[in-house]
Design a protein that fits this description.
Blueprint: H1 13-25, H2 45-109, H3 116-122, H4 137-198, H5 202-222, H6 236-247, H7 265-275, H8 284-290, E1 292-294, E2 304-307, E3 313-319, E4 322-325, E5 334-337, E6 343-348
Antiparallel strand pairs: 1-6, 2-3, 2-6, 3-4, 4-5
Length: 351
């Protein structure tokens, strides 16, 4: 049966095949898969390096902020536990005094005498009120009300301190939670930097490494420490700290880590000095604030070199113008020129 084509010639199989081939060969816009790294062809290697350094720098700043919030919350938790223990002891003492005062009142009401022994035991923490002779029992009875009121006042004071500490802990935990929420932003910046590095061509990767090497050579010439050509050796605790840090070479940087398999920058320095028998603050900012400052020209092995105006990076000085440090995500604990980053100052643990 023939079907009318309305005056048009029917398409032949040959024509259809040719049309399909033509459509197939037409140029189409290219779309990168969502997981593919973005190309960096339109940027200079200097621009790429600057962008990478900026992303990793922002990640490290957020990391130190989180570490600081975490340390503060942990300290406040311990303080709150101590205050609650004090409050429990004080409340127990108030109950004992109340019971003794009631017994004294009942004894006096019956016209009897109250032996001093129980009162002496109860007032043992108050030497000025302790009793040596049973004949002074009545005098002690009169002081019970005063002591009881004093204990109640102490209980109220400890109670207020405990409430304030609990409130502070809630605030710190809220701050830590906010910093923890920033973890996603930290990881996002790290992922972006890794995506950039993964997207580099082989020649770009090589040029980036060459640029890093050239910057390291310049940094060596910028060091003004007194031992840049050799000089002082680490001794005592400083030597133990240096040895510990050097033994971590090759272990990866992980933000918030304090070992033993990975570290962030201040996690490495705090762990090294803890291993040397001199615990120091956990974060680079607290290390800068809490340790003794020394002049850059006086730096010696074991000292900490603090970097950037906000003290958000730290390395352990090992002498000859070098530090050992955990540089950034995607890198491992390594040795670098001490002047490879903007130096804020030098601090000396154990001094």
């Amino acid at each position: 049966m023939n079907v009318s084509t309305g005056g048009r010639r029917p398409w032949s199989r040959t024509y259809l095949a040719a049309l399909v081939c033509a459509i197939t060969l037409l140029p189409t816009p290219g779309y990168a898969a969502p997981t593919e790294p973005a190309p960096q062809d339109d940027k200079s290697i200097e621009d790429i390096r600057a962008e990478l350094n900026g992303l990793y720098r922002e990640a490290e700043m957020a990391t130190e902020a989180y570490n600081t919030a975490d340390v503060k919350a942990a300290k406040q938790k311990k303080r709150l536990a101590s205050l609650r223990a004090d409050l429990a002891r004080t409340e127990g003492r108030v109950r004992d005094l109340r019971d003794l005062a009631g017994a004294a009142a009942r004894t006096q009401y019956r016209g009897g005498e109250l032996a001093s022994t129980g009162i002496q035991l109860l007032l043992g923490e108050h030497p000025d009120q302790a009793l040596d002779e049973a004949s002074q029992a009545r005098q002690a009875l009169r002081s019970l009300v005063t002591v009881s009121d004093s204990q109640k006042s102490a209980r109220d004071q400890v109670g207020r301190q405990t409430d304030a500490a609990a409130k502070k802990l809630r605030e710190l935990r809220s701050s830590r939670a906010a910093k923890a929420a920033a973890k996603q932003r930290i990881e996002g910046k790290i992922a972006r930097a890794e995506q950039i590095e993964d997207g580099l061509r082989q020649d770009q990767t090589r040029k980036l490494a060459q640029l890093d090497t050239a910057e390291a050579q310049k940094a060596k010439s910028r060091w003004t420490g007194s031992d840049s050509g050799g000089g002082a050796k680490a001794t005592g605790a400083a030597e133990r700290a240096v040895d510990f840090a050097m033994a971590q070479m090759g272990k990866p940087y992980v933000w918030g880590a304090v070992g033993p398999s990975s570290y962030d920058c201040s996690g490495l320095t705090s762990s090294a000095w803890a291993a040397a028998g001199h615990p120091i603050p956990r974060t680079s900012q607290a290390q800068w604030q809490g340790l003794r400052h020394v002049g850059l020209a006086s730096a010696r092995p074991g000292d900490l070199i603090i970097y950037f105006n906000d003290a958000t990076h730290v390395g352990l000085y090992i002498g000859q113008g070098r530090i050992v440090h955990a540089p950034r995500p995607g890198r491992s604990v390594t040795v670098a020129p001490a002047a490879s980053m903007p130096v804020l100052g030098v601090v000396r643990p154990g001094a």
